[in-house]
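queue> pop job 88
queue> type: inverse folding (structure -> sequence)
queue> payload:
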């Protein structure tokens, strides 16, 4: 009896996971508005009533699909950040390694994730789950930033993830030659790391030099 119940529970978890993956694929292909119980069930290869059995509304299905997706991605992100940090000798080296991983697509960024972020801007009901997702990513990044000597790693993690999201969104929407992408990503990451590694007074001194003193001789401010 117990064995039979265990098999039923395993089958139920498998079907639920199929539905969540199908919902994310559907969002990626056609946007949030394409998510209905019938469409997701069909996409998962299950009976029409399957999605409605597990999720009372489309909104619940979408929210749970994002949670499931983030849970899987967090594990990938943690492992990659640990690899990036392993045996690195400087902040700049960490930035270079992270750049290679990002541009190579190893962080598993998807169109569906950003579709759901944008949906939260239009639909207040989605904001709690998106905030939950963003907070989870920030928490996964904090240990890396602490290892770089950044005291306020929690605050830096917000800027770090905002930067990664912005770069990823540009990469998805308007891909650039890989050499340009590598250079932009590396400079952006290294700048962020160094800015947060400085104390407030050092950062103020570095950024308060009058623009006239930075003139490169050609009539432009040489930054």
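queue> result:
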């Amino acid at each position: 009896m117990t064995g039979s119940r265990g098999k039923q529970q395993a089958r139920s978890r498998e079907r639920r996971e199929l539905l969540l993956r199908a919902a994310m694929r559907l969002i990626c292909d056609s946007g949030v508005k394409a998510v209905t119980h019938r469409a997701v069930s069909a996409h998962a290869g299950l009976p029409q009533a399957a999605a409605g059995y597990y999720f009372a509304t489309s909104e619940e299905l979408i929210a749970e699909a994002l949670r499931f997706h983030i849970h899987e991605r967090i594990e990938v992100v943690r492992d990659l950040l640990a690899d990036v940090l392993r045996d690195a000798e400087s902040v700049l080296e960490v930035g270079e390694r992270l750049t290679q991983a990002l541009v190579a697509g190893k962080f598993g960024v998807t169109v569906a994730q950003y579709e759901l972020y944008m949906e939260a801007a239009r639909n207040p009901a989605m904001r709690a789950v998106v905030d939950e997702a963003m907070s989870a990513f920030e928490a996964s990044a904090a240990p890396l930033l602490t290892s770089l000597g950044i005291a306020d790693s929690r605050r830096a993690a917000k800027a770090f993830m905002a930067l990664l999201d912005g770069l990823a969104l540009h990469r998805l929407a308007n891909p650039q030659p890989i050499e340009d992408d590598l250079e932009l990503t590396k400079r952006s990451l290294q700048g962020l790391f160094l800015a947060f590694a400085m104390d407030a007074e050092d950062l103020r001194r570095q950024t308060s030099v009058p623009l006239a003193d930075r003139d490169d001789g050609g009539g432009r401010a040489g930054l």
